[in-house]
Design brief:
With 193 residues, the chain is mainly alpha-helical. The strands form two sheets. The chain has a two-stranded antiparallel sheet with strand order 1-2. It has a two-stranded antiparallel sheet with strand order 3-4. The chain is globular and about 45 Å long. The protein starts with a helix and ends with a helix.
């Protein structure tokens, strides 16, 4: 199996510290394998290749930012869907959550284009025209009210408003997955509110 550095030539590899690594390998990684809806290694596994359990945070506990943003998105998404199931609701309640839910439907449609392509994040995606119009309206609202953090995670959005999904509506996988994770995090907070 390739090491984190071999998987990601030239990209910073992050490794859990010793205590977290022990917990990850003995408890959390095994627990994660019980949930088919949470795609860690499988999200990145290229079609037609043998299974590599080190993709994602994986069995080795080493990951790049793209893999981190994926597992964060997957976990928040699973948590929200389970919370909704337990509440007996099939759709998000009216109000601010509904607007986020509509945006999620659009954004989730781009996720399959990222799947099964390994951990190199070199594919730049752009919104289709009809989605870009919706994003432009949301971007302006979000810029003024910061409903959902977008580009700050990646750098100074004052000097480059295209960080994250950003003003241009063009994004890499890590940017999309980070934003989706933030959407689900906000929904979880609002559902508990």
């Amino acid at each position: 199996m390739p090491t984190c550095q071999e998987k990601t030539t030239g990209i910073q590899c992050i490794s859990l510290d010793a205590g977290d690594m022990e917990l990850w390998k003995s408890v959390y990684y095994a627990e994660l394998q019980k949930y088919a809806d949470i795609q860690d290694a499988d999200f990145f596994q290229p079609d037609g290749q043998g299974k590599n359990q080190d993709y994602g945070v994986g069995r080795d506990g080493q990951f790049v930012l793209y893999e981190y943003c994926n597992i964060r998105y997957q976990l928040y998404r699973c948590m929200v869907l389970e919370q909704m199931r337990m509440m007996g609701v099939e759709s998000l309640p009216k109000g601010q959550i509904t607007d986020i839910g509509e945006l999620l439907k659009i954004l989730e449609g781009y996720v399959p284009q990222l799947m099964h392509k390994g951990t190199k994040d070199s594919q730049l995606l752009s919104f289709r025209d009809e989605h870009k119009k919706i994003w432009d309206k949301f971007y302006e609202l979000n810029r003024n009210e910061e409903l959902i953090p977008d580009g700050r995670f990646f750098g100074d959005i004052q000097s480059n408003p295209n960080y994250g999904i950003g003003k241009d509506g063009a994004f890499y996988g890590v940017e999309l997955l980070h934003f989706l994770g933030n959407c689900y995090k906000i929904i979880a907070h609002l559902l508990n509110g």
